[in-house]
Each structure stands twice: as C-alpha cells, then as structure tokens.
Fold this sequence. Notes:
- With 354 residues, the protein is α/β, with parallel strands linked by helices.
- The protein folds into 2 domains: 26-149 and 237-277, D-Maltodextrin-Binding Protein, domain 2 (3-Layer(aba) Sandwich); 155-234 and 291-320, D-Maltodextrin-Binding Protein, domain 2 (3-Layer(aba) Sandwich).
- It has helices spanning 5-26, 43-57, 69-72, 78-83, 116-125, 128-137, 176-184, 197-202, 214-217, 246-251, 254-289, 300-320, 322-352, and strands at 28-34, 62-67, 89-92, 141-148, 155-157, 171-173, 188-190, 208-209, 228-230, 239-245, 294-296.
- Strands 7-6-8-5-9-11 form a 6-stranded mixed β-sheet, covered by helices on one side. Strands 2-1-3-10-4 form a 5-stranded mixed β-sheet.
- β1 (28-34), α2 and β2 (62-67) form a beta-alpha-beta unit.
Amino acid sequence: MKFSKKILGSIALICALAVAGNAASDKVTWKLATSWNAEFPPFTDSVANMAKMVEEMSGGEFQIKVDAVNKHKSAFGIMDMVKLGQYDMGHTASYYYKGKDPVLLMFTTMPFGMNALEQYAWFYFGGGMDIMQKSYEKHGMYAFPGGNTGVQMGGWFRKEINSLDDLKGLKMRIPGFAGEIFAKLGCSVTNIAPGELYTSLERGTIDALEWVGPGMDVSMGFHKIAPYYYTGWHEPATELQFVVNKAKFDKLSDKNKAILKTAMKTAAYDMLIQNYDMSATAWDKIKTEYPNIKIKSFPKPVMDAMRQANADLIAEQSANNPEFKRINDSQQAYMKKARAWTNIGEFAYIRDNQ
C-alpha cells in the first residue's frame, strides 16, 4: 500500500507529537514550600542541595522549585498547603503542628530525649520511620528526616534565671513539648515565625526566646537585647522534616521515588554537619568577639522542676493518647539501649580526654 506524501507527512507529524508528548509526560516539576526565609543557612541550604541533587540525578527530568516563606507568607502553614496539594512537598518542623496532632512533635525532638546519633539510629534502624509514616499518612502525607541541628541551646534571656520564681510570667517564644513545660512552670509561652524573632524580642513582645545554637543565633543579633545564653536540655536532636503529599509521591515513577529519597537523606546529613561547623565556628568567636554574651546553665532546682514537668506531661499525654504512648515507648526503649553505648563510647571518650 502506498501513501501520498501528504499522508506520510501527517503520520510523521503525529509520531513526532507523540514522542514529544511522552517526553513531556516524563518530566516532573514540583513545588516545595519552606518555613524559612530565602536566606537562612543551613536550613535553606539543605533544601537547595536536595533540589539540585534531584535535578542532577534525574538528568533534568525531575525538578523541584522552592518557595521560601517570603513568597507564600505562611511559615506555619506548610502542613496544610502540602496536604491540600497547593505544594507538592515542604520543609518544616513537625513540632510546629502539635495543635493539629500532638504526636507529630515527637518526630522533631523531645526534652531530655535522644541525641542526634541516637535519633537517626531510631529512625532508620529502630522502627522510627515506619512509626512516623503511619502518623503522617492519616494526614495524607509522608514525612522524611530533613536535617538535624543536634543539641540546641536553652535560649536567650533578658534577665538571669536564678530560681523558679524568675520564670513566673516570663514571656517566651519556645515551640514543641518544651513550650508546654515552660507553661506548666508559669511562663507565658508563644510560637513566633523565625523571621519575626528579633523584632519581637526588641519590642518587648517577648522576654526570652530559644532558637537553635550559636551558628544561627549570633548572626540574628539576639545577644544585643538578651545577653544571658543558656545551655540546652529541651531539644537534644531537633530534626526538621521533608513532608510530601502522599498522592503526588505515589504517582512518581520508582526511579523518581528513589532519587527523591536519596536526595532528602543526603541533604539531611549535609545540614547536620553544616550546622555543627557553623556552631563550632561561632562558639570559637564568642569570648573574643561577643564578650557581652553570658553563658549560663539553669540552676539545679529549675532543671529538676523541668524534668518533673516533662515526666508529668508525658504521663498525661500517654494516658489520653494511645498513639503518643506507642511512640514514646518506642523512643524511650531505643534510647535506653543506645544511651548505654553513648555513655561508654562518645561520653567516656570526651570525659577522659579533655
């Protein structure tokens, strides 16, 4: 059978369009919303590195465009935007959403809980990932570790804390379970978006705040207003999260799923070591470049009260929320096992080789 040149040309055009259509359908472009301002290392670096790795590993076929809070204007709205499909994924901290679901805060960190090494081991080898996915799936999302700050400092205070009385009526920005502990001890607790922290402290909206550690804190200028800088207890391993719309993730090819998971895991590790370097570098400069900063630890009676308040709140939540109890039991059991090695390994090495 012979075809005219016109028909052959049409067939060729249809084939070309089909090939082009297939190529277009293979290309995936996602949008990601963060809880952070556009320039906010290492948090924003972690996200940018992840998006870059996805694009490179996919040969440009999978791209992720990042919108900082400067654009979408909702630092604490990431979970809703991802759930509703306005964004395909987000980068945030689970404990910002304890009002929606109290168990989510446990995937960021818990006071007096695991350190970063212990927590990562729990996630990847102690069943933590499966537990986290079950908690997030009921919200139409998956969650993946998105970078850890390690032990965070206890916060910046305008006045020295010498007793429990000094906490009464204190206005403090502190999220997560630690916020509930401070509230139980008489503080007026609030959660403020990262970009508004300095202004709130400067204007007296708050008397104290906790953020991360010297690597991120000193550049924010908190020490100019609140010079008392307390050591940590409340966030021993603050893990951020990549949250992903479940339906969107399930539609990805197996190849793109693997690429995304690998990029997120690598970016999380990158953030951990970048933040550690930033804090080590900043701490090295504090005594000479910032002599007004007064490094303090909370008095023992205050720490004892915090520890007791933590135990009481955990018991209360566990009694009222079976899912909270299951997660806490898993974390506590793993920490008990891992802490024995941490003490004889990491801690003993540091203690004996000062």
